[in-house]
Amino acid sequence: MISPTGARARALAFSIAALLLLALPAVSAAAPAVNGEFKVEGLMTNNKLVRGPDGNMWATVENGAKNVAKIDPSGTVTEYDLGVAGASGITVGPEGRLWITRNLGLTSFTTSDPEGSKENFGDTDVVGSHSIVLGPDGNLWVASNDQVLVVPGGKKASEITLAEVQLISVPELSPRDIDVAGRLLVIADAGARSRIVTLTTAGAEKDYPLIPEGASQGIAGTPGGLLAYSQPGKTPEGAGLISPPTASPQINLPNGGDPFGVAFGSDQAFWIVRSASSDLVRLTTGGAVSLLPGLKNEPRQIAAGPGNTLWVSQTKTGEEAVVRVTGVEPPSPPPPPSPPPPPVRPPHILVPETTLGKGPKGTVFTAAKRAAVKFRFFSSTFRSPISSSATESFQCRLIRLPGRKANASTVPPFRACRSPRAYRLVPGRYRFEVKAVLGGFPDPTPAVRTFRVARVREIAIGLKR
Questions:
Q1: What is the mean pLDDT of residues 347-373?
Q2: Which of 52, 186, 315, 430 is deepest in the core (most CB within 10 A)?
């Protein structure tokens, strides 16, 4: 891993070291717990899991002729024969089909009819422990030895041509997992370079060397761009956080434990499978660590599932299974802020008293389309010596009232005004309101004047009738 430099990197390193907790937190009713183990034949070390668009979990398997397995939320397992070999990575494509990597190609299928809908895209350089993910650009990204393949999304596998597949060279890449962090593709590299690889959708590469050196195995990212990776095989074994372009120091895990698959849970924390310790590590985005025991039989891969669950593969020969972890609850939203206390009127500020002076009363007649009206107002409190130092102002509003030909309009808010306040009004019924404001405290009983504007011709027509 790169050595952090600068104030930002030192601050990140300090916060992660300070938050590192190795004790199991107190268990509550909603605490995560292992809750179900379901036999899935043929699960191997590099068989990945994913939540399907149908709400079920799906895994690649190598069980004779069987290549994929569906596990519904209750744990019922169904396996399917897609007629391929070397199934490994699995993801949901942009068109809602599932895509798997296999020896020398890709296969896609629908969740409703896997065997009847399978389509192959082959003759590619997909080799090794390959993984696949839907990229932020809507294409499928496949990590393979020494390169990454970009397969156009939204097309049937049978419609894709080799000329449409972009090859991005990443020398000495030996990938173990690939995921998306924000707008970046992120790859765990188990090759000789001892690094985490990030790629933009345009193919720009940036490497994050690991210190101490050693292969990385699992990787997972957040929508905000943070990623976590596992690093087994070296002493001490651990994990790390990267928020490009800043990387944390390695986070040593208690007793190593062979950290493997990584997933980002609905509780907004990373979860890391430890094969040798048969447990899960919960790694917060701030670097705090806690443990969840209860696994067995060589756990390897992990994925987030429906209903705030995690699903973990166990790969011991003859005892292959998928384990369900429940109670991975999202964090509670922060409580709403308390309303501000009402302002307290200082004793030297008097309550203002508003008085309306000259202005229209009763009916205002006009021969034009609009009548000019004007209101004058004042506050006797403003003239009080005790309040002469307070800030003085007025607020007014004019409300058009419902009438024979006019519907009630929305009552407008009070707005700052000065005396006199003038309007040009069409015929109708109105209410003018004004209140004085002294030192930020308004008159609780505004002065009110109700009046009517009428055209002269309307009066003449009324006389004829």
A1: 88
A2: 186
